Amino acid sequence: MADSLNTDPRSGFCTSNSTFYSKRKPIPLPANHFLDVTTFISSRSHHGDVAFIDAATGRRLSFADLWRAVDAVASSLSSDFGIRKGHVILLLTPNSIYFPIVCLAVMSLGAVVTTTNPLNTAREIAKQISDSKPSLAFTIPQLLPKLADCSNLPIVLLGSGNPISGAKFKIISTIEEMMRREPSQIRVRERVDQDDTATLLYSSGTTGASKGVVSSHKNLIAMVQTVVNRFKLEEGKEIFICTVPMFHIYGLVAFATGLIASGSTVVILSKFEMDEMLIAIQKFSATYLPLVPPILVALVNHADGVKRKYDLSSLRAVLSGGAPLSKEVIEGFAEKYPGVGVLQGYGLTESTGIGASTDSEEESRRYGTAGMLSPSMEARIVEPESGKVLPVNCTGELWLRGPSIMKGYFSNEEATASTLDSQGWLRTGDLCYIDEDGFIFVVDRLKELIKYKGYQVPPAELEALLLTHPEIDDAAVIPFPDKDAGQIPMAYVVRKKGSAVTESQVMDFITQQVAPYKRIRRVAFVASVPKNPSGKILRKDLIKLAVSKI
């Protein structure tokens, strides 16, 4: 609880407990303890008509159709297949109009949704299945081979396509069959409370082994309230383009749950493809475009061709998450696409995608910021070595506490204890500072700092500088082992088309702008920088590549 006498209204920092409090208006949570997130969403009033549109086929799902389908699928899961509260259901599928139907149906029963990346290998998927022990899986025919090692797992097929022949798959139904089912009046309805588990999403594992993040119905309800409140979506009907993956917290937050609570329409693309995304904006007169930083950078770099070929006049704002945008990128976008705002957000799977955001163009012009704390969220900046809690404008690890913070890691007490303390504080692993106006700035990942002769070098700082080079399209900086220095900064660079910039030119460019210990001492040129679905650089992949060539 904030101590108003000792809390600075400008920064939100309370001197009596060294805690930063959100400056945004608190969001009330429903008092009814026995409430699942599906019921919470479906009971919200709005004036929306169409819930989802399949961009490829043009198929539309009205809100009435959506809730009828959710009820039918939930009824089939319960009555036909015995799914009960606490059972885990796996979704292995690209984005589709069926994704939110399955999620909402599963959670309405008190069962648990676990998702996985369709690009994962059969081995990676088998590991997640072994860990989460799903009772049933939903997938598309094309992805069945990835479940070949799980022959006893009952499968419901999504969409069309010919299933793989052979008896090794236990196919029990199709989603269309389930949707045609008349909801049963006698199906088992178990009491679901807000503290019950709703989702089991596996974190990207950029700094270690992938772990199952356990989120409650309360976590998701708080997230929905934050999303709806942030965009003031109840004030008018909006159309969102969905290209970010629904299996990821970003997609789940924005599309499978959050936006339908406001009556907004979501246009779903099965995967990201720049031309298809731009065609969809034009065809469906989209107003909002959630994306990750690399897509926004591409829109800036190819703006002339984009504007010549597509009509994007309906677009009001792009929403960027995954990493803060630089001043050059924001100003470049504003110049190329006047009238289209840029809003940013910061969140983790462990915080149900909620943490901080910029909610206006004015806030986004605070360059390099991840935004201000989300409503009802608290933060601390903690010195990693000593554990000392720090004040305004001091850099340390960002800790978060609020209604959207996870319950813990699935069946992993050790990882939970090292990430979530007894008071509910989540150690984010991000080095940050909060300025005198309450804006959060992410300096780097705590575990990704390069240790050069005892000095700490933040890769993100060097990456931001590299992206200002006129001949560089993208870049990533990693620690490279060195017997004298311990580690040296190494850059992986994507040249712009037609560029012949050299290793020495890249190093000289950085040398002129940083302290000697921060200089880049090794450069490799690549076609692309590997990133996870939210746009974060997969440094571990690049480190492995670099070390393999020693």
UniProtKB/TrEMBL annotation:
The chain crosses the membrane at residues 247-269. Pathway: Phytoalexin biosynthesis; 3,4',5-trihydroxystilbene biosynthesis; 3,4',5-trihydroxystilbene from trans-4-coumarate: step 1/2. Residues 461-536 form the AMP-binding enzyme C-terminal domain. It comes from the Eukaryota. One of its GO terms (molecular function) is ATP binding. Residues 44-410 form the AMP-dependent synthetase/ligase domain. Keywords: ATP-binding, Ligase, Membrane, Nucleotide-binding, Phenylpropanoid metabolism, Transmembrane, Transmembrane helix. The keyword Nucleotide-binding applies. GO terms for biological process: phenylpropanoid metabolic process. The keyword Transmembrane helix applies. GO terms for cellular component: peroxisome. Belongs to the ATP-dependent AMP-binding enzyme family. This is 4-coumarate--CoA ligase. The lineage of its organism: Eukaryota, Viridiplantae, Streptophyta, Embryophyta, Tracheophyta.
